Predict the structure.
Amino acid sequence: MAATKEYDYLIVGSGLYGATFAYFARKVGKKCLVIDKRDHSGGNIFCRDEEGINVHAYGAHIFHTNDTGIWNFVNRFATFNRYTNSPVALSKGKLYNLPFNMNTFHQLWGVVTPEEAKQKIEEQTAPYAGKEPANLEEQALHLVGPDVYNALIREYTEKQWGKSARELPAFIIRRLPLRFTYDNNYFTDKYQGIPAGGYNKITEGLLEGIEVRLQQDFLADRDYFKSLADTVVYTGQLDAYFDFREGQLEYRSLRFEHKRLQTDNFQGNAVVNYSDAAVPYTRIIEHKHFEFGTQPHTVITYEYPETWTPGKECYYPVNDDTNMAIFRIYDQLAQAEEGVLFGGRLAEYRYYDMHQVIGSAMTAAGRIFGKDILDRH
Ligand code: FAD
Ligand code: UDP
């Protein structure tokens, strides 16, 4: 008879996927060990406290969802404030509201009524109508036309992704709403906010009572780690798990430059986008505005897009046709891999937002432990 292993689950990665899965596994009495190669838990939603300001260490994170179950779930771990994301974008010296709405159209064209704006958009998009957009550029021209595209999309997108907008998938730009009201809310979801006290409240709440070991790289000693548990939940890079044997999946990386400044208000908004190619960063985040902070100091973060090379953090999957073809091969290998569940933004190679990662982990937990655990816990 095989010896009983010490843990039921070894969970590789303490980000939202790993933490959510561990939470439900523990609730049904499973013994879990969570490991992470970083020196903190929480993955990319980790916040660092800088004298009362919660600094989103891996870029601005705004929680939003349409799913009442997921909203109620996260509200068990933290109280969410009323923050509504309303970024502004600086393009060629002029400030515009985002997402594309009546304020943006007024700033661009001087139009005042929705009828005037719709007419202008119709004129702008007419040459691109009737053809299924094959890439991000065609999608943007089809949706908003050349004026908005040239002022607010093309240069930002090309520096964000390091590729021509013609080489990028159309779905990326469909993340942004287009509306004919004076509404600067970046999202259309029913629920939105920032957890008071930062995102660590959520991941720490999910991981409460669960053993977590930091600075442990699963791939550096996978035989040892696998020997510890019956099942592995792997939330790291999918191609790395398979030793890149089918080729390398492409990612986009970022570099964050954090600065503490002795001023109470640097830019008057949490998120300011820099549309121009000549500016090397895509946005500046002023973290205190996520929680309406009144501290005498502030912390800002410059976000520089970077080419991904092995060893750098993989922030965004590049879901174009070439990479998706490679992904499908790895996905088949993953499905055939016994005793391992692959989940999260890296292992599923999907441009997931937080609520989608939680949803994906809940689906897996429901499938394994029975759907009713999602209601009971
Ligand atoms: P991660 O958070 O990446 O966690 C994976 C963990 O696994 C990491 O801690 C990593 O160290 C660990 N790991 C990997 N490999 C190994 C290994 N070999 N051994 C041990 N540990 C390992 N979503 C929103 O909803 N709203 C937003 O506003 C938003 N903004 C974002 C801004 C940026 C710049 C980025 C990059 C993402 C943003 N997201 C946002 C998405 C959000 O960050 C993700 O959906 C979510 O954090 C992914 O959780 P995860 O558990 O899948 O992955
Ligand atoms: N985008 C843009 N201009 C902006 C903001 C976004 O062209 O000012 C495009 C860009 O291609 C980006 C995509 O819209 O990658 C999605 O934007 P989002 O803000 O959702 O990106 P994320 O927060 O995930 O980086």
Notes: The CA atoms of residues 284 and 298 lie 12 Å apart.
